[in-house]
Amino acid sequence: MSPNPPPQPASTTEYHHTLRPQPNRALRSTAALTALTAGLATSLACLSPLLRTNLLLDPSSPSNPPGTPILRWTPGLLLASNLLTAIHIPTTLLIEQHIYHQPPNSLSSTSNRFRWPLLLKLAKRILPTALISGALLQLLNPAGWPNLTPRTLTMSLLTATLVPCAAAAEEYVFRGLLQRVSASWFADSSTAFWASTALTSVFFAGIHATSSLWMNAYCVLASVGGSLMTRWTGGLEASVLLHAVSNVVLMVPPVLAGNMGYLEELTEKGPSVGMVVVAGVNVGVVVWVVGRAVENEKGKEV
Fold first, then answer.
1. How many domains is the chain built from?
2. Is position 225 within any domain?
3. How many CA atoms lie within 13 A of 275 on its CB side?
4. What are the Cα distances from residue 145, in Å, to 126, 136, 152, 174, 262?
5. Which residues form the CAAX prenyl protease 2/Lysostaphin resistance protein A-like domain (predicted)?
6. Percent of the chain having pLDDT more than 70?
């Protein structure tokens, strides 16, 4: 008998509970979390020395003494930070495939693939809300008028292209692997969902490393919303779309304006209550829209 069991088909109803039937759950969970932690640590270890190079640092700023290196959004920083985050998409897929013996790409959805048609279908409903939210955020805290130069246009293009990749990777880590691993510890599917959602939401807020209570609350809300949509749709497409679009509409305006300190100020001081409320309402509306879309599809099947 082969020491490795054959790949198990993914559940067609409960995405988060797919790994529950696997034997030796404690051992597999330990191995998966260890591998994931090692991958995250390796990314940070690769990024840290790069942050000390001129490739990623702007050597001067009006608010600092001349020659003082400070962290600023540069092409090198965008490439390094986002690509070193995006690499966790294949990492999580490989962890689930080889430690839990799941079919390739089963982490994407219960259909064992990333469902691009579903993402495009949801995008038609979600993008208008996200664009309105982005416009309101700029009214509350303007980043400045667009400054159309080769540098800002290049940076904006890189931001719009790379940021969604990093956002998708975070969804594969949190709504995907971590949620499935932690949900496998509970026999009851509902208990498993809410316990794993609480755990991943706390970790999701923690990695954003902000002292702002309102920002932490938003991270928890976005995480819970992503988990709900993943459960309803049986895959990560909706949560990836919400995360990617939310980040792009927040980050592109200041980059296009050449206001590279805008996002760092938000990170250090935290967004205003108004900004968090707008972003939170956007999450709520998107979750409601996705829920309605799922109900409509079920109605058609009946």
1. 1
2. yes
3. 23
4. 25, 15, 12, 35, 13
5. 157-249
6. 86
In a domain, 143, yes or no: yes
SS3 content of the chain, % helix, strand, coil (to 5): 70, 0, 30
Long-range residue pairs from 178-182, CB within 8 A, at least 24 positions apart, any chain: 178/36, 178/203, 179/16, 179/227, 179/230, 180/15, 180/16, 180/17, 180/18, 180/19, 180/96, 180/107, 181/19, 181/29, 181/32, 181/33, 182/29
Q: What is the CA radius of gyration of the chain?
A: 20
Please state the rounded mean pLDDT for residues 80-101: 93
Question: Which value, to the nearest 10 degrees, does the dihedral of the CA atoms of residues 161, 163, 166, 172 take?
Answer: -90
pLDDT tens digits, 25-36: 999 999 999 999
**Entry pTM:** 0.89
Q: In the chain, at which residue ranges do the beta strands (DSSP E only) sit?
A: 57-58, 70-71
In a domain, 172, yes or no: yes
Q: Does the residue 14 lie in any domain?
A: no
